[in-house]
Specification:
This protein is an alpha+beta fold and 403 residues long. It is built from 10 helices and 22 strands. Strands 1, 2, 9, 10, 11, 12, 21 and 22 form an 8-stranded mixed sheet that branches. Strands 6-7-5-15-16-17-14-19 form an 8-stranded mixed sheet, sandwiched between helices. β11 and β12 form a beta hairpin. The longest helix has 20 residues. It is globular.
């Protein structure tokens, strides 16, 4: 006989960032009456990747046509604007410039035009003299204007998702142990000693998603390698009207140092991308030996170092030298000086890396017995959070229907 179990909820979501909260919201919208609990180790929502990015609603122009990133970012950008308008969350559709400052970047810029068109994104091509129509202080050989890019308060979005979901949100609930029994369900114990029993677990733990997957008993076949993105604010925000980006290097999932006028009117500059010495290593002084040791023990970390040491050396140089960072910014904004750059809060990107050193370049969602794991959801995951949430919710509900 099968024992009767008093489940605390139907679906247990680990992680109270924007993806976890969007998943909870999507579940209760698609299947009213489904009991959802969200465990978040911090004292409030969106304390890590969601609350420490540049606040950009990405258009989807960068991403491979047909990929989850491309489909979900294009769809998610429109839905995010609508969601913000519906709930009165600060946002604006600003458009942005992607600027080529060297001749070697022109073919990649033209490639982005083609990619944008394949992804259904309106793009305007600009000559060097036309850049001043949008950004008088920015210089470049050519640029493209992407009109669907915007900005918003993603922390406000996360709070609204939490409220509108009707889920039980437990803050200060760090997962310590997971007991998954395919024939029965999942029991999760927190460091406070609480036990939550669920029929299905959804892992949206961001920087710790691979660890939660292993606690569940599933091999994620990747590791999160944390990269810190360091930002400055611009002391003379009048130099920048909107959003200005360089042409990205297609070998990396990072978009390069860019200029972003936020909802508050301030201008953020960054980020660069340097290895973090802890999963939540927001400064060089934050070192967690166990986490650093796990990163160094992963073969993929060493493959990255061997392949991309020149790129990494440049990022490290800009991290320790404001003059070097200023030089990088002046490629786009010649008027800026080192005195214009004021250090501000950093973020950490949860980048999934395979054993062979491949940087996973798309959203990665895997399933196990009674579990759905979101294993790679860095930028543009905030933009794409509503479609991602529906995708994960659909998988969780399908699983729930079979148990």
């Amino acid at each position: 006989m099968r024992p009767e179990i008093a489940y605390d909820c139907d679906v247990l979501v680990v992680g109270g960032g924007i993806v976890g909260l969007s998943t909870a919201y999507a579940i209760t919208r698609a299947a009213p009456g489904t009991r959802v609990t969200v465990l978040e180790k911090e004292s409030g929502p969106a304390r890590h990747q969601t609350g420490r990015n540049s606040g950009v609603i990405h258009s989807g122009i960068y991403y491979r046509p047909g990929s989850l990133k491309a489909r979900f970012a294009v769809r998610g950008a429109a839905e995010m604007v609508k969601f913000c308008a519906e709930y009165g969350i600060a946002h604006a559709v600003t458009g942005k410039l992607i600027v080529a400052t060297e001749r070697s970047e022109l073919p990649r810029l033209h490639g982005l035009v083609q990619r944008g068109r394949e992804n259904g994104i309106p793009v305007r091509e600009l000559g060097g003299s036309q850049i001043a129509e949008y950004e008088p202080e920015v210089r470049g050989l050519a640029a493209i204007h992407v009109g669907t890019t915007g900005i918003c308060d993603f922390v406000g979005v996360a709070r609204q998702l939490a409220e509108a979901s009707g889920a039980e949100i437990r803050y200060g609930a760090r997962v310590e142990r997971v007991d998954r029994r395919p024939e029965l369900g999942v029991a999760v114990r927190t460091t406070a000693g609480d036990v939550v029993r669920a029929r299905v677990l959804v892992n949206c733990a961001g920087l710790h998603c691979d660890e939660v997957a292993r606690l569940t008993g599933d091999d994620p076949e990747m590791r999160i390698v944390p990269f810190r993105g360091e930002y400055y604010s611009l002391a003379r925000p009048e130099l920048v009207r909107g959003l200005v980006y360089p042409v990205p290097d297609p070998a990396f999932p990072f978009l390069g140092v860019h200029l972003t006028r936020g909802i508050d009117g301030g201008v953020h500059i960054g980020p660069n991308a340097v290895p973090a010495l802890a999963r939540e290593g927001y400064g060089w002084g934050v070192v967690r030996p166990r986490e650093l040791g796990a990163t160094l023990a992963w073969p993929g970390s060493w493959h990255i170092a061997r392949r991309h040491w020149r790129y990494g050396a440049g990022e490290l140089r800009r991290s320790v030298s404001r003059a070097a960072f200023t030089t990088a910014v002046r490629r786009l904004l010649p008027a800026v000086t080192a005195e214009d750059l004021v250090p501000t809060a950093a973020g950490v990107r949860a980048q999934a890396v395979l054993r062979d050193g491949t940087l996973v370049d798309d959203f990665l969602i895997k399933e196990g017995a009674r579990a759905v794991h979101v294993l790679n959801a860095p930028s543009p995951a905030a933009t794409a959070s509503l479609p991602i949430g529906r995708e994960v919710a659909g998988r969780a509900l399908a699983m729930l229907a079979t148990v």
